[in-house]
């Protein structure tokens, strides 16, 4: 989705916020813009673009752009590439910022200043927002602000963004009439400077960025240069020649430059930072001694995850009932206020239950996002990745893929949206591709019905056992497929893990609330519109052609297009032990798997409302027979059907979200394809291997 | 001075980075995260499953896998 930038005349300045991940960038962005913000994607990439408006200290309107968090301009992820390209003015869709707010974590000043050191080369007026000075102070780190301003040559504003401290001063700094571009203070080894200047002369870019571009080029390694050579062979040649000359002087351009920068930073820090002795263990260190402990770490980890899921499944129950009742009430209201017609049926039987069936998951999704927000902002997410990395890396994934997969137990949609924290593209895609294999809450009604048909009188212990094994099948399938994709389609070297473990901090509820609203909006808009269209389509399939007068609901559906599709796919599903009636259920489940229960209720002509524990549907299904007199729902069919639902991609909202997150139809279509194949093969294997062993 | 591998340190031990034996790309990333030659690194702990490790460098905490850590030489 593209966002039209606000009209130029209304904006006096384009301001961008840049900084490392976890430095409080987004908190500052939210505090400045409040609700005047828009979230979309940069055209052509799946990187989120957050733009907003705010007013300077004299009421002048300004545009604010929240750049993706990055550690360096020497990029290694699409997010970092976007940040670099915007700062260098390479993106046609985003103007080069007039002012940059460089957010710096005061409690780890040296590392944070590395990006600042690079940005000072860019010749954009820069303001350093020295965030989290409270944390630094608690650790006994005292920073001499005037001295730091002097050393960096740019204004420095001390802040505690989570408490809105320093926000006014930051606004004043950004609103200042004359903001000069920073002077180049950083000492660069002389041979590198000479080479960079000569390359800068060859580049066809604006003079302000030429030197910075040249430095970046000079420090690219061979492969990245190779990618560039297609467009710009002449420049690449001179870069290679320059690199060779430097190496002949025993200067490795990249490491020499990084070391020079860090040396400069270290000197700056030694002059401006006063540490009255190491204060020993911080609170954060003490927390980590428990939270990443060999025993207590796992106990607290399991505790946190259990709490999250208990809340998702219990707290969400009440608002879910409201939504359910609301949708029913609305349906009845329309029924009584509209004359009987196809249009009424479309609204009452198609649109309202279809959209209601999706919106009903909103409470769960919101609660999940609330917890994800707390895990992320408190710093615990990084610890979870730290603890789980060993497990995840065994299938070629990154520790950060764990939380998205775990979230998918509630719903794949927030899980897939949470993959944004995975930087490596192939890892992220692999995670997205397997996330829907984790049994989400929409599968529960299907499992419950099929287990009731399978073993109606068994103890709830046995029933839970079967339920649990379905979850296990999903987990095993997800990990196997992730491993398979990483070995084949998404082959890449196991990316290295470089994970910052930021100090624990109190999450800002305001920031989490903002994100929850934002994510809920995306879910409703993206998934809601597609769902509406598909519910109408499915309604039409189940309604037309119209049955002759006096036909029962079961007769009506069997001769509808949906019924014909059930017949049509029967040859494909007969090897799994299914008949055309189950086929109708499968067709109906394409949009959302939980529709299966309701559809089967219609197919078997159960009067009244069908719920998963309704014994009438269960008993009808148990006594249903093939024309030859044999039972339809043999134990093997029940299990094979459950396996099918574990593995199949039957959720149009997920398809819509995958399409949004990957920015193309290619991946969602591939995902539907592979998961359907997997589901068919899985169900086939269960049915036939089961027979062969001697089960029925 | 004898060098050790960063991955072979014990929890709580400190070392000074003496050199790297890693592909350029990985080395670059470590450098940019502040693991430059001569800087003092403390191995804070091993993850509960033994890998990755957590180190403290330039006042912040960073996690990396043993695979990469075994390409970093340190002197005690």
Task: State the separation between the terminal residues of chain B, measured CA to CA.
Answer: 8 Å
- Derived from helix and strand composition plus strand pairing, the structural class of chain A reads alpha/beta
Tell me the strand order in the biggest sheet of chain B. 1-6-2-3-4-5
CATH topology of chain B: SH3 type barrels
Q: What is the general shape of chain A?
A: elongated
Task: Explain this structure.
The complex is a heterodimer of chains A (696) and B (76). Chain A is of the alpha/beta class and 696 residues long. Among the domains of chain A are: 168 residues, Rossmann fold (3-Layer(aba) Sandwich), CATH 3.40.50; 61 residues, no CATH class; 182 residues, no CATH class. Chain A is built from 32 helices and 10 strands. A 7-stranded mixed sheet of chain A has the order 2-3-4-1-5-6-8, sandwiched between helices. Chain A has a two-stranded antiparallel sheet with strand order 7-9. In chain A, helix 7 packs across helix 8, helix 15 runs antiparallel to helix 23 and helix 21 runs antiparallel to helix 30. Chain B has 76 residues and is an alpha+beta fold. Chain B has one domain: SH3 type barrels, CATH 2.30.30. Chain B is 17% helix and 41% strand. In chain B, strands 1-6-2-3-4-5 form a 6-stranded antiparallel sheet. In chain B, strand 4 and strand 5 form a beta hairpin. Chain B is globular. The termini of chain B are close together.
Keywords:
heterodimer, A: 696 residues, alpha/beta, Rossmann fold, seven-stranded mixed sheet, two-stranded antiparallel ribbon, 10 strands, B: 76 residues, SH3 type barrels, 2 helices, 17% helix
Quick gist of this model?
The complex is a heterodimer of chains A (696) and B (76). Chain A has 32 helices and ten strands.
Write the layout of secondary structure elements.
The complex is a heterodimer of chains A (696) and B (76).
Chain A: E1 13-19, H1 25-33, E2 37-41, E3 48-55, E4 61-66, H2 78-87, E5 99-105, H3 109-119, E6 126-131, H4 133-138, E7 142-143, H5 145-152, E8 156-158, H6 167-175, H7 190-202, H8 207-218, H9 222-229, H10 233-248, H11 253-272, E9 273-274, H12 283-291, H13 296-315, H14 317-337, H15 342-359, H16 362-378, H17 380-393, H18 402-407, H19 412-417, H20 425-434, H21 444-454, H22 460-487, E10 498-500, H23 509-543, H24 553-559, H25 561-568, H26 570-573, H27 580-588, H28 595-603, H29 615-623, H30 635-647, H31 652-662, H32 666-693
Parallel strand pairs in A: 1-4, 1-5, 5-6, 6-8
Antiparallel strand pairs in A: 2-3, 3-4, 7-9
Chain B: E1 3-5, E2 14-20, H1 24-32, E3 40-46, E4 53-57, E5 60-64, H2 66-69, E6 72-75
